[in-house]
């Protein structure tokens, strides 16, 4: 966690992005780190946790982080929390909270609130289209010999 905190401070000092960092550990060893690179890479998904997951998966040559723990300098936002679940990490540690982040204008609490609402109740207009046509991909997936379950 101290390394995640150190990297988050360094990221502010060098102006690379927001005050966030993440460190991924496997078997007691750091296998990857990530810092927020949203503004320096023009990538709104380049949050520290996502960057760290990408680096860790590359280093492990795997799409899963089995047995890995992720240390986040701040409580993960909904996107990163989702990414950590998809990566199947074993444990999350975090330093500051989403309320601490909101206090310095990184307010992801509203996304957590939106998730609880139905499609029609959300601020971001969400409309379903062409379900029957879109289902074809799932029908093909069900019988695909190339399918890799994950
Ligand atoms: Zn995030």
TrEMBL record:
Entry keywords, A to Z: Hydrolase, Metal-binding, Zinc
Q: Does the keyword Hydrolase apply?
A: yes
Q: Which InterPro entries does the UniProt entry name for this protein?
A: APOBEC/CMP_deaminase_Zn-bd, CMP_dCMP_dom, Cytidine_deaminase-like
Task: Please cite one Gene Ontology biological process associated with this protein.
Answer: purine nucleoside catabolic process
Task: Cite the CMP/dCMP-type deaminase domain residue spans from the record.
Answer: 1-124
In terms of domain of life, where is this protein from? Bacteria
Q: Which GO terms describe its molecular function?
A: guanosine deaminase activity; zinc ion binding
**Family label:** Belongs to the cytidine and deoxycytidylate deaminase family.
Q: What is this protein's name?
A: Nucleoside deaminase
The organism of origin for this protein: Lacibacter sediminis
